[in-house]
Design a protein that fits this description.
alpha+beta
């Protein structure tokens, strides 16, 4: 079965636009939420403060008969003067609670724990987790992460311009922005619906997604360039469609293999790696999608718009180095 990429390009663009707009709306809502005040729900890594996680002690009779009630926890926090704190019930049976609040000293943490024990039940001391991060460290992590993303995008533009031509590089960057926006937007939605937070590993995930996505795009662009060299009289739409279908099996197999590994990490890797794996699953899936349906169709659209739909008839078109083959991709 041959995939009709060019004939349905409006459909692919509409799907991407719908997902991106949904993410942007979610980010706007998150910004107005008093418990978030940011496009994404930030973890302790970025905002600083204290995060405490308590889990009910099921060794105590009748202590785990009911899941933790968020309303009860909120009432306790209000009485402690911590009304703006973020509360998330976690665990398979919802018998643990994670609280992110302003920086608390030892006495304040002790008072909070005692009040929660009285209202919710006895907690297991062995599973109690307390983390404290200063806001300065959080700002440094965010700044360093954004700088790393900017440098990576700049490096990719230089590499793609050198290896191909500038229009290839520009469309590849558009596809990369697409992948990053979709991933960020999905995590904004997850933050609103499920309380999913982003930490420093999320920045690492974005950088990994950028590298994976551009690799897939390079393979398709290599095949497009090779076909143009061999058949310059063909229309760019036919060239792009053939290139996509010739590399489709490779793209699907590569992505599925990676997603199987990431799914294992997501389900069995523990809480620390769960959101990292989820970001990679979303990003890698959209990276394969954008390489096939966005980067390739945008390049064909740009060539048609600039009178280079048929390379052999294009006037003033830059020369193409025929010595480079898709075999080195």
């Amino acid at each position: 079965m041959k995939l009709k990429v060019m004939k349905q390009q409006s459909l692919w663009w509409s799907i991407s636009l719908l997902i991106i707009l949904s993410g942007l709306i979610a980010m706007a809502i998150s910004w107005t939420r008093p418990d978030i005040k940011a496009p994404l729900r930030p973890s302790l890594d970025f905002v600083g403060g204290t995060r405490i996680q308590f889990e009910l002690d099921c060794a105590v009779p009748n202590n785990c008969d009911q899941p933790v009630n968020v309303g009860t926890v909120r009432e306790v926090l209000d009485k402690q003067g911590l009304g703006g704190s973020s509360i998330q019930v976690v665990g398979q049976n919802q018998q643990a609670v994670s609280i992110r609040t302003r920086t608390l000293n030892v006495d304040e943490r002790t008072q909070l724990q005692a009040a929660l024990v009285q209202a919710v039940g006895k907690f297991d001391a062995k599973t109690t987790q307390i983390d404290t991060v200063g806001p300065t460290i959080g700002r440094q992590l965010f700044t360093s992460g954004m700088l790393a993303l900017i440098v990576s995008f700049a490096g990719i533009i230089v590499y793609m311009s050198f290896r191909f031509q500038f229009d290839y590089a520009f469309m590849a960057i558009v596809a990369l922005f697409h992948d990053v926006l979709v991933t960020v937007g999905m995590f904004s939605i997850f933050g609103l619906l499920f309380g999913t937070e982003v930490d420093s590993l999320f920045i690492v995930a974005l950088l990994t997604i950028v590298g994976f996505s551009v690799n897939d795009t390079v393979v398709i662009y290599d095949r497009i360039r090779e076909t143009i060299i061999l058949n310059p009289e063909r229309h760019i739409d036919d060239i792009v469609e053939d290139a996509v279908n010739q590399t489709l099996t490779r793209s699907i197999n590569t992505t599925l293999t990676v997603l199987l590994t990431l799914s294992s990490i997501f389900f069995f890797g523990g809480e620390t790696l769960k959101n990292f794996a989820l970001a990679l699953i979303v990003g890698f899936t959209m990276g394969a999608y954008s390489s096939i349906f966005i980067a390739s169709t945008l390049l064909a659209w740009w060539r048609r718009r600039n009178g280079q739909a048929i390379p052999a008839l294009a006037t003033g078109a830059p020369a193409i180095d025929a010595s480079v083959s898709s075999e080195d991709a």
